[in-house]
Amino acid sequence: MKNNKFVKFLSVPYVLWAIAFIIIPLLMVFYYGLTDINGKFTFSNVMAITDPVHLKSLYIALILALISTVICILLAYPLALILASIKNKNEHLIVFIFILPMWMNFLLRTLAWQTLLENDGIINNVLSFFHLPTLHIINTPAAIVFGMIYNFLPFMILPLYNVISKIDQNVLNAARDLGANYFQALLKITLPLSVPGIISGITMVFVPSLTTFVVSEMLGGSKILLIGNVIEQEFTQNSNWNLGSGLSIVLMVFIVISMVITSIFDKEGEGNAI
Amino acid sequence: MSKHLIDLQNISKSFGSNLVLDEMNLYIRENEFLTLLGPSGCGKTTTLRIIGGFETPDIGKVIFDGEDITKLAPNKRQLNTVFQQYALFTHMTIAENIAFGLKIKKKSKSYIDDKIKYALKLVNLEDYGSRYPDSLSGGQKQRIAIARAIVNEPKVLLLDEPLGALDLKLRQDMQYELIRLKKELGITFVYVTHDQEEALTMSDTIVVMNQGYIQQIGTPEMIYNEPENAFVADFIGDSNIISSTMIRDELVEILGVKFPCVDKDFGENKPVDAVIRPEDVELITLPDDFDVTSSGTSLDSDSWKETGRIQGVVTHLIFKGVHYEMEVMANGYEWLVHSTSLFPVGQKVGINIDPFNIQIMNKPESEDEEAAPIEE
Predict the structure, then answer these.
(1) Does B83 contact A273 at a Cβ distance shorter than 8 Å?
(2) Which pairing describes strands B213-218 and B205-210: parallel, antiparallel, or unpaired?
(3) Which CATH superfamily hosts domain B240-362?
(4) Are B75 and A193 inside 8 Å of each other by CB?
(5) Across the interface, which of B52, B92, B103 has its CB nearest the CB of A177?
(6) At the top level of CATH, which class does the domain A47-271 belong to?
(7) Among B125, B174, B238, B358, which residue has the fewest nearby CB atoms (within 10 Å)?
(8) Chain B contacts of A170, Cβ < 8 Å?
(9) Taking the model in full, what pTM does it have?
(10) B80 touches chain A (CB under 8 A)
(11) Start and end residues for every CATH 2.40.50.140 domain found in chain B
């Protein structure tokens, strides 16, 4: 019992933290989102999403987040497989190298991509040096996707690597032993067993991609508005906290929906893998 | 004798600078229960993995049914493995686990269903098809792992310490289960274990291995009764291994006392090891005033029948159920003795050994020779 009390005592700072910085801000978002400037209850802030501009920004944000998440999975999965198969002392060093960009400031990394992708940036300079046609990437959706992938890829690699490297080698051997070739074993054993890693990878890439406004601002110019940018502008430029909060609620709903969808896939993956 | 199904020819395998198998030659006959027995690191599991296709030997060949399969992928081999930690697919039901190999081979649904039923019945887990592996006990998981392997009708079943994770009682039950399965299926079993009792109980042939070399190949009786060297004698059951001198053919001097034996051709006055199983040491009760310090009885007199060839004192006594285990201090050696009769601690006893129960072995010439290859 004494021990139990001590654990409770230890949890006090975390509970206070959660109340002060999670619960209260969340309640404030709901309060502002569901009231007008005079403090009267209204749904108008939430319904403002039906405004064509807002709807379009949400639509683009969803599409770009989806594209970067899918590309992140496609890039990270083979890499995680390779990393997990390295069975020597260099394993951790190589994982470390792939995680290293996370040590640098997020804004700095995005700024670096700006310089790379600019019309007279490094990539185009190299291309024109070889007399190749230059590319117009900066301020396009492609640039935003580039930025999202570069920034969020480690968050896909890590959970995938973790879960794949924990799969018992003998389970894969058993599949080979029962007649499966490498790709059949990959498809029927490794893939379903790594679903939890895929789920957390998707969550950790899709959610920040959907809500980002920094990447789109720096690499998309002000031409492409994502829902994140719209919300940011409501708070900073228009000082309309009510509208910003209302749109935030809508975004949260979409995040919850996306998580529900992935958890359904998770259950299916566990059930009928064959 | 039936034909060789698997032939391992001159197999060597190293991991880094660590030589695990050194020029190993071994054949496995059709339909036999062969056990690779040895301490950890002796190369037994590596041998099994080479047969299964999970390791490729550095040199040497694996011949299966007349074909060279040394470099063939595991999924192309007509054998199946039961892994140490079961290695069940935790994301599939028991039925899906068992069906895995058959689905890969694109068998019909009805064929697969029949096979699942048959396999579950064979391992006495008929109602478990829709369960997940995590809800099974260790023994049940092991039986599912076996069922999953045998539905593919392999010619050989490889078993890598399959009972290692089970408790004693369950292990004994599973031993009988495996013998029964072997009889019902009529296929070759290659079994890896470090448990000598398991090996003696189940095998037709035991291959004793140490440090990458085969020490002895033989039936359980041969391995137990006529160990080829001190390692085998020591590894298989308890033994008294006593440094002795072979006086001449059929006469050995053990601890300064001459014993008649049946071994020949060791030369004269040659240092040897005498191996005597604890249950082969016969004890005779001596009167309390008997002088046990005098060393031994002369060969010619008949007094050994009453007083034993060597005399000593019982120093330890443990009741083991079927027998008593005693230690007898005699002529400076602590003899391990198993007997159904009780000789209390402090009792003076005489020791006799039937000539047939003294196994003479050449002494290893160097420290390393324990791990030297045996001559074919």
Answers:
(1) no
(2) antiparallel
(3) Nucleic acid-binding proteins (2.40.50.140)
(4) no
(5) B52
(6) mainly alpha
(7) B238
(8) 83-85, 87
(9) 0.79
(10) yes
(11) 240-362
